[in-house]
Amino acid sequence: MSTRGPFWALSIAILRGFLRDRGAVFFAIIFPLMFLVLFGGLLANQDQSKVDLIQIGSVPLVDDLPDDARGAFDATFEVSEKDDRAAALEEVRKGDADVAIEQRGDRLIAHYTQTDAVKAAVTQGTLRAFVDGANVAATGQEPRFTFEPESVEDDSLTVIQFVTPGLLGWAVAMSAAFGAAATLQGWRQSKLLRRLQLAPVSTRTIVAARVTVTLLIALGQLAIFLGLGAAAFGLTLTGSWWMAIPLVVVGTLCFMALGLLAGALARTTEGAVNLANFLVLPMAFLSGSFFPLDAAPQWIQRLSDLLPLKHLNTGMLDVMVRGEGPSAALVPLAILAGFALVVTALAARLFRWETT
Amino acid sequence: MAAISARNLTKTYGDLVAVDGVSLEVDDGEFVGVLGPNGAGKTTLLEMLEGLRRPDGGDVEVFSEPVWPRNARLQTRIGVQLQASSFFERLTAREQIRTFASLYGVGPGPADDWLERVGLTDKADTRVEDLSGGQAQRLSIACALVHDPELVFLDEPTAALDPQARRNLWDLLSSINDSGRTVVLTTHYMDEAEVLCDRVAVMDHGRILQFDTPAALVRGLDAPARITVGPGTLTTEQAAAIPGVTETADSVDGVVLVTRDPAGVVAALAEGHHLDGVKVQTGTLEDVFLSLTGREYRA
């Protein structure tokens, strides 16, 4: 075996240290994958579940639906019949059913609950549509307008498409920040940083080795996420998904810088990891890693624009599953690079060789 | 030639004067100990000599080169052991020393040789976290020596070891300057300084109180020696008659003779064939510390 250069020696030492640290591997790879399995596997089949509808007595408007209309009706509603009106309403009140309908003459009356706002809206809209349809049919005229729903997304767009980029962003952010914070603090406490300072190795070489290993880990996370997503959950990537690679690289640098900042501020390894956690976990929630932010209040969406993870997630979502071109990643890349520079400069200012 | 030449070093942390105007010359090939209780300023002094810490005042030259700021020409000539835990996490002993070797451009061969020399070959595949305190210290020392430096700094290499492990380490420590290497070691153990060091700097409250060979330090005490001969060998009257004996006493071990001329008294005892169970006690470094600081030595 020939003599390795300092850079490789350090890189291999750091990589070995990581791979043998069960906790670090768990949090970098297994833990985020658990979420991927959870979201991708369990929530994938949760196409808005059917609305439980109780039909009180006879409701000719529903009973006399033509076959195709009846099919559409059954696709939305799980129909059960009950003659006891009071009991039916009580079921709705308790939440066992979503809506109870009765027909009095020409009036279709729906008793619904507001507990689930989405279902309540679906119920009203759908029932109204059927009543309108019945009205048109009653005139004996051919309908003049027709309605054709068409999803703008690819047919293959399932839950996994949305959760993979966000969870990957969170995983990359977490392991980059923790790795940097823990290494800086750990090495400082054991005086290894001091020891290296006395060896004929430049600070640049030490930093380069640490960055290289972290990037390697991040790209490993990318490969595992995409591989498992495609193999097990039917993840399909769109054209310029490869732009996710530079996004992951720059994102990693950005979160390493954040980890360095945490490591520079904290006095103990635990403190550094806790601080990194404190920065990354809320950021993951506010950046749409776990759920889309579209429904969040306006101020949260504005706030999320200030968070680097939001831009990493958005960039990856655009190029990996939304089918946007490579240029869609450029703005997020620039923002992430800017964050990385500013935070690194801040961390460098606050850096101390020792805890004392 | 002086390996180390330090002039008037001072380091202050807030109100605490850690090192207070220390000057020190260490010759090539010398084994020097810096002895003092915890908090005496030993580590801070050592870190300034190594070039790790910038002195507030004074300057240090190693091999006639300034050590501060970071001097690349010195780095391969100096070896440093900071403390036992200065390791890369979760590497085995062999990976550890090979990594350090690579930093100095040294191949795995010499690294493995050093592992053997410190007696860790059978622990080569053990992770550093699983080594005992003594084994970790040995590995740490080997890592400091792997590039064959001319000058080695060892900061309390035997701290936190049990007495047995400490003595086991002495053989290794005394052997590392065999090849003419200069060694500077800090310790708070008197016996260790006495056994290992050519010269000892006694340090307290940031100052070097005295710097000399252990024997000269004790001689300088001007304290009488106590010579004990086995019971029944000599009566106290006979003992008091020996020239140079100033005082005698009976003890369970025999008769105690107090003298300022131990050599002459022992010679007289030999002449009279009264050497059975003889024991000579001169002052120890503990007495030196007591006389220099006026207080008991507490490590």
Notes on the protein architecture:
The complex is a heterodimer of chains A (356) and B (299). Chain A is α/β, with parallel strands linked by helices and 356 residues long. Chain A has two domains: 230 residues, no CATH class; 89 residues, 3-Layer(aba) Sandwich (D-Maltodextrin-Binding Protein, domain 2). A four-stranded mixed sheet of chain A has the order 2-1-3-4, sandwiched between helices. The model of chain A has no long low-confidence stretch (mean pLDDT 86). In chain B, β1 and β2 form a beta hairpin. The longest helix of chain B is centred in the middle third of the chain and has 13 residues. Chain B is globular. The model of chain B has no long low-confidence stretch (mean pLDDT 89). Chains A and B meet through α1 and α8 of A and α3 of B.
Largest sheet of chain A: 4 strands, mixed
| CATH architecture identity of the largest domain in chain B | 3-Layer(aba) Sandwich
CATH fold node name of the largest domain in chain B: Rossmann fold
Mean pLDDT of chain A: 86
Form type of chain A: elongated
Rg for CA atoms of chain B = 23 Å
Quickly describe the structure.
The complex is a heterodimer of chains A (356) and B (299). With 356 residues, chain A is α/β, with parallel strands linked by helices. Chain A has 2 domains: 6-44 and 160-350, no CATH class; 51-139, D-Maltodextrin-Binding Protein, domain 2 (3-Layer(aba) Sandwich), CATH 3.40.190.
Topology (SSEs and partners):
The complex is a heterodimer of chains A (356) and B (299).
Chain A: H1 6-19, H2 22-42, E1 51-56, H3 60-63, H4 67-76, E2 77-82, H5 85-94, E3 99-104, E4 107-112, H6 117-139, H7 159-189, H8 192-197, H9 203-233, H10 244-265, H11 269-286, H12 298-304, H13 308-320, H14 330-350
Parallel strand pairs in A: 1-2, 1-3
Antiparallel strand pairs in A: 3-4
Helix pairs in contact in A: 1-9, 2-7, 2-9, 7-9, 7-10, 7-11, 7-13, 9-10, 10-11, 10-13, 10-14, 13-14
Chain B: E1 2-13, E2 16-27, E3 31-35, H1 42-50, E4 57-62, E5 65-66, H2 72-75, E6 78-81, H3 93-103, H4 108-117, H5 133-145, E7 151-155, H6 163-175, E8 182-187, H7 190-196, E9 199-204, E10 207-212, H8 214-219, E11 225-229, H9 236-241, E12 245-251, E13 254-259, H10 262-271, E14 279-281, H11 285-293
